[in-house]
Every structure is written in structure tokens, then in C-alpha cells.
Fold this protein.
Amino acid sequence: MSALGLALAVGAAGAVGALARVLLDDAWLAYRARRASRAGDTAGSGRLAGLAGWPWPLLIVNVVGSLVLGWLHGALPAGAPWAVVLGAGWCGGLTTFSTWAVVAAGALKERRWARASSVLLGHLVLGLRPLRGPAPAPRRRARSRDVQAAPTRRSPSAAPCGPHPPRRPTRS
């Protein structure tokens, strides 16, 4: 792919990623409006009413973008055209550092400490975790009877290993 073609592809993928972010945000706002109209209030209802104003779409796009970027980093060779198009283009258009910073700064300005810290830490922890790949399976401690010596390769002419020479079959 030529440099111009790569630049156009990155730009197009960035536009698709940004459009996906806007559509998710609009769908979330429409969902919240429907839910509030059913409940008869504008502040939200139910046991999660306090989280109704939390920026869930922002968290979703940032975590999904980090997950895709982490997968691309592990699956495709560095500098591969599709890795650049999807990573810099689609993930770059989908994720948004600036909105995350504005939301956190707004919460700090309003002295909403819990919201500011949850936005900052939630995005950092959940956004950086996918970059490491899947969580490793827990390891159990090896007991002495579970540990076996690794087989060794020896040439046929090598001397026998161990304290005793190999036994020869006896004739009866």
C-alpha cells in the first residue's frame, strides 16, 4: 500500500471510529431519556440512579479501543498496514482522551470527588488492562511428587548418568 493510500485508509477508519463513538453516545442518551420518561423523572430511577449521569459510553469506547489495540499489537506485526489502519485510524477515532479529560476536569471543578476519581481510575484501570492481553490462568503450587525431571538427550556413546551404572540382565 502506498503512503497516500495508507493515509487515506487511516483517515477513513478514523472517521468510522468517531462515527461509532457518536452513535453509541446518542443511543445511550436516547435510552436514558426513554427510561426517565417511563419513571416520570429526569434524574433517573432505580437503585443505580446515582450512576445515571456517569459517562458509560465513554468508558465503553475507551475500553473497546484499548482491547482492539492490544489485540492488534499481539496479532499483527508492527508496521503492518492493517495494524496502522485499525490501530491509528479506527481505535484513534473511537477512543477519546480529550473527552475523558474534560469529564474528569468538570467533575473536579464541581467538587464531585467520587465521580472524578471513578472516571479517572476506572478508565485507567479498565483501559490499560486489555493492553496486557488475557489474564493468566492461576497457577497451583507444585508439590515435590508432581515435579518430574525433564528428559535429557544423550548420545548413545555417552556415559550413563546417575550414581549407579545400568543393570545388565542376568541369566538364570
Notes: The chain is about 60% helix and 0% strand.
